[in-house]
Structure formats: structure tokens, C-alpha cells
Amino acid sequence: MSGELKKEQVLAIIKNKGNAKEKLLSILLAIQEASGWNYVDKEWAKLVATELEIPLTKVYDVLTFYAMFSTEPRGKYVIEICKSAPCHVAKADSAVQMFTEELGIKMGETTANNLFTLQYTSCFGACDLAPVVKIGEKVYGHLTREKVAEIIKTYREGSRCLK
Amino acid sequence: MSKIMPLISANCGKISPASVEDYVRAGGFSGLQKALKMPPTQIINEVKKAKLRGRGGAGYPAGSKWQQLYEIKHFPKYIVCNADEGEPGTFKDKLLLEKDPLRVIEGMTIAGYVFNAHDGYIYIRGEYAALQDDFQAAIDSAVRAGYLGDKILGTDYSYHLHIMTGAGAYVCGENSAMLNSIEGKVGRPRVKPPHLAEVGLFQQPTLVNNVESFANIPTIMQIGGEKYLSYGTVDSGGTKLICLSGNVANPGVYEVPFGLTLRDLIYDEELGGGPSGQKKIKFFHLGGQSGPCGFLSQLDTPYCYQALRDKGLSVGSGAIVVMDESVCVIDYLKAVTEFFIHESCGKCTPCREGNKQIYALLDKFAQGTASKEDYALLQRLSTLLAKASFCGLGQAAATALSTCLKNLQAEFDAHIEGRCPAGVCFTKQESGEQ
Questions:
Q1: Least confident span in A76-80, A83-87, B118-122, B136-140
Q2: Is A79 on the interface with B (CB under 8 A)?
Q3: Are residues A81 and A58 located together in one domain of the fold?
Q4: Residue B242: its pLDDT value, please?
Q5: Residue in B99, B245, B343 to test binding to A, most A beta-carbons within 10 Å
């Protein structure tokens, strides 16, 4: 999988952010975004460690501590469902059910075509629209079955257009 | 008279967020202009007179915090804005960052001038990545217009702002954990003392305030501390951005003067507007997941720091999550506890293990297998977490639980007897992973 993102691209990200130690989080987030599969490959983590002159264990400490990172490939689109208390009260459970049924996968799983990963997220401050999901930086609220079907359809079609 | 008081949110939605021109036309940067002509001690005095208390959740008096840092004669000093708004049910900092970033920048710049700091950092949570670029655009336009950067407004004072990103960790809202995160490390809290005013970011003296706290500074400079105080109550100056969510008719962010009652906030037509559905309100959760729950008998309490405290309640982050009678308190507390299990950094045992034990006990209530002893055990555990946890996260993790144990004991008893008054437990299928 590490072949998807080239070494030069990773080096360019590090150069762009600057190789200071305090840039570690933003570098790793940028690599994850550029990966196409929403994860940070071990090879790139090693490269970051070398460039920032920090031990690889430190890089992994960060990668495994913060919830937004993944060290395993995920779907092209990560659908993050909020289950914090305000969303829980607004029946986040049924939103979970709608997505799992629509995609035919369980929470934490990725669809067979690697297009979608379903996972929980912590609150991202859209409680007035509860229940909510986030896909990339886009937020969808007041979820209904029709809306969920529409969202999935849009992303499926969008990815077809890209091909 | 309107109960809404747009003192710091007046520009939100009315100006183009990154436009210095718009902001100045709306009176922006006049606080900074004024501050640059004042001696730092006088600025601190205004903040003290304003009785501005930290809007992140802890409610520490901002003036005292500023005074403590001012007295430390060690440089460089750093200014840090905590924009790691992670308390579920809180989305007011997002409003300010998104709709009026220049106000936050102005507040941070005034603070920078007070402490002769040359670098300020704003730590924006990873979940708010979408607004980081826009905030950078606001910084850039402030620099271009001479309100930020080298030799601000023709003075000898230079100050630069840097955006740092989080990557998903609630504990980073704790200031010392946040500083570790800014340094590119894992965000585990530090041992205190030394306090951050002495040993903060990059081991230097540091001021950390919340987004909303900084957003109040330009207003305090413009109208003066005394006038600002007069909008609120004797102990809680000014206004507060509250975030209403849950089973309430009008969810959203509202700016209100301190001193309105909880009943006003939740039921007034202009504000919460009462329950969203047909059911009556049962309880509400104040100040985020780490805050206490409030009950109907407490509705006439004025919303301000001291009065809430006297009733065992708190302002916290400003979140008010409203629950109606369709919500089972056990089910709700399970969701709260699940959150803390996920967010515990694992450093100390009471928080790491205690939350898991609380969840297991609550689950017994939900399954109908709990006994009186389990109720007592929950009481003991909630005290233990509050007293023995290392940082604020663990200390506050069982706050909601302890307030509900006390005020909704009948509902716990009902579950022991095999009844769920809200009709949620015993029938519900567990939905997947924990």
C-alpha cells in the first residue's frame, strides 16, 4: 500500500510543514490525508522519524494516542458517526443502524470495495444538528433514512466520476 | 426586553470573517488601539475589574491568572489559546473561530502586548480542521493590515500567531496536556506544580486562555472593566455563550448575560423554547460531559458562577444538554461513561479502571440485575474518581453520575426492581462495539 504515496511526496509534505519536532502532528495528518486511504503507513512513519530526528517509537506513540490517526488502511471515505451524549439523546443509535444497513457493514468495518469505513467519532461540535456524521470535513446533520441513502449515493457517484 | 445580549457575538454572521475592513467598521481593533497606549498593569486591572472568569470550563479568574504571569520576570513568555473545544455539547468556540476570528486574534494580541510576548499559539482541535485554513486567512489579513506581525500599528511591538492542530484527544483540552500536544508529543497532562505560568510551553512562562475568554478582551478594553461587569452579576462579569442541545426546541448558541435563571435559558421562547417534543423535561447536563446534571427543582437558580456552585452545579464550558422523559438516566450515564472510557489517557488507575467499573455497574442496572449494593458501590466509585484521579478529566468523569445518583435515586431503585420508567432498558439490543 505504501506505493500509493511516493517518498518524494512525503518529503515534500515534511518540507512544506517544516521539520521541527512540534510539527509532528500536522505532518502526520497531512500524510494521512494524502495517502488516499486515510492512514499512515509504517514506511512513512519511519521516514518522518528520520527527517525530524526523533525515535520511531515517539512517532508511534503519537499515531496510537490520537484518535484521528490510523496505522491501517481505511476506506476512501471515512464516515464518522458521533455518539456523544447530545447525539445519543437524538437517537444516534438509529443513525448507526441506517448506515450499517445501507452499507452492509458493521461499525469499525470497511466495505469490500474499500470505498467506505464506518467508525465512531468524538463530538465535533455540531450538536444543534444531532444526530450527525462527518465525512472528511463535511458535516451532515438531522439524519433520516432518506438523507443517509442520498449521502451514500452522492459519494458512490462521486467516486465513479473520479475514475 | 430581549434576553439575548450580543456583546462578543455581535459580528457573527454579519461580517465577512477574514475581512479586516469589515471588522474595523464594526468597531474591531479599537480595543487593541486603546491597549497599546496603556501600561500593561492597567490592562490587567481592567480585566480584574471585569471579573472575567475563564470560559473554557474551570472558571478561574482571568485577572488573577494574568497578574501571576505578569509578576514572573522570565522571558520569553508565550500566549496560548485553547481552541480544543472537546466537551460534547459545546460548540461556541467554533462559532467565534468561524464567524469572528479577528476578535480572537485581537484578544490574543492584547494579551501578547501585556506580557511582551512575541509568539502566540492557537491550538485548534483536529476535528475543526475545516476552519483552520479560514483562521489562517484571518491571521494573514491582520498581518497585512498592520494589526499583527512586525511593528504592530507603527509601535515597536511585534507579535506573531501560529496555528497548531490537534488530532483527536479530549484530554488535550486540559491545558498542560495541550501544551505537550503543541510540542508535538502525546497529550498527557503534566504534574503540577510547577504551574504553566512558570513552566509552560517549551518550558517557558505561558498564559493559556480559552477562545471565548480571549474574545472578551477587546470588549473589556473598549467599554472598560466596570461597564463589562455590569452586564453580568456581582461575581460573574459580562455575558456567556451557552450551547443548547438535546431534547430542546431551539438548539444553538446564544449569548446571554449572567444572572438569567436556568428556567429562562431552557424554556424562554427566545432561547431554548422548552422541550422539543411532547414529553416533559427530566434533567439537563451543564458544562459538558465533565459537568454536573441539573434537575427541575433547580430551575430557578441564576446562571452565574457562585449561585450555580452553591447548588452543586457549574457553568463549565457553557453546554446545556436537555433530556426529556424519554431518556433513561441509566442509559444516558452509560453513554457519558463510555465517552470517558474512550478519552481516558490511561495514565492513572482511578480514571482508567474506575470508568470501566462504573460502566459495568451501570450495565447491571440496564440489564435488571443490579442490587442496592451496586448503588452504594457506584456512590463510592464516583467519590474515588473525584478524589484520586491525576487530572481534571478523571476527577470530573463521575460528576454527572454522582449528581444523578443523588437526585434521581428513584429511577435507580426502579431498575433494581426491574422497571425502566423511560422504557429504554431491558428491551434494548446492544448496538455493536463498545
A1: A83-87
A2: no
A3: no
A4: 98
A5: B245
Note the pLDDT tens digit of each residue in A24-68: 999 999 999 999 999 999 999 999 999 999 999 999 999 999 999
Q: Please give the Cα distance from B190 to B179 (Å, whole number).
A: 9
CA distances from B228 to A73, A75, A141, B217, B239 (A): 52, 51, 36, 10, 9
| Residue from the list A24, A86, A106 with its beta carbon closest to the beta carbon of B245 | A86
Q: Is A25 on the interface with B (CB under 8 A)?
A: yes
A120/B335 Cα distance (integer angstroms):
13
Q: Per the structure, how many domains does chain A have?
A: 2
- How many domains in chain B? 3
Supply the DSSP symbol for A43. H
CB neighbours of B429 closer than 8 A, spacing ≥ 6? none
Mean per-residue pLDDT over chain A, rounded: 93
CATH code of residue B123: 3.40.50.11540
Chain A residues whose beta carbon lies within 8 Å of the beta carbon of residue B289? 84-85
pLDDT at A3: 52
Torsion angle, CA of A121/A123/A129/A133, rounded to 10 degrees?
Answer: -10
Tens-place pLDDT, residues A3-18: 579 999 999 999 999 9
Residue numbers of the domain that contains B293 = 239-324
Quote the pLDDT of residue B27.
97
pLDDT for the residue A161:
64
Average of per-residue pLDDT values in chain B: 95
Return the pLDDT at A29: 97
- What is the complex's ipTM, to 2 decimals? 0.94
Chain B residues whose beta carbon lies within 8 Å of the beta carbon of residue A107: 432-433
Q: What is the dihedral of CA B349, B353, B355, B360, to 10 degrees?
A: -160
Look up the CATH number of the domain holding residue A113: 3.40.30.10
Tell whether the model's pLDDT for residue A163 goes beyond 90. no
> Which residue of A24, A68, A127 is in closest CB contact with B184?
A24
pLDDT of A142 > 50? The answer is yes
A92 and A150 both lie in a single domain:
yes
Distance (Å) from the alpha carbon of B323 to chain A's nearest alpha carbon: 7
Distance of alpha carbon B233 from alpha carbon B303, whole angstroms: 9
- H-assigned helices in B276-371: 305-310, 329-343, 349-367
Give the best residue of A88, A106, A129, A134 to mutate against chain B (max B CB count within 10 A): A88
Cβ pair B253:A128 closer than 8 A: yes
Task: For residue B120, give Cα distances in angstroms to B78, B324, B407.
Answer: 6, 43, 44
**Is A93 part of the contact surface with chain B (CB cutoff 8 Å)?**
yes
- For B248-277, the pLDDT digits (tens) are 999 999 999 999 999 999 999 999 999 999
- List the 114-153 stretch of A: residues with Cβ below 8 A of B: 121-130, 134, 137
Do A57 and A18 lie in one domain? The reply is yes
**Does A127 contact B343 at a Cβ distance shorter than 8 Å?**
no
Q: What is the pLDDT confidence band of residue B233, given thresholds at 50, 70 and 90?
A: very high
- Which residues of chain A have a CB within 8 Å of the CB of B335? 83-85, 88
Residue A125, CA distances (Å) to A82, B84, B87, B112 in order: 10, 11, 8, 28
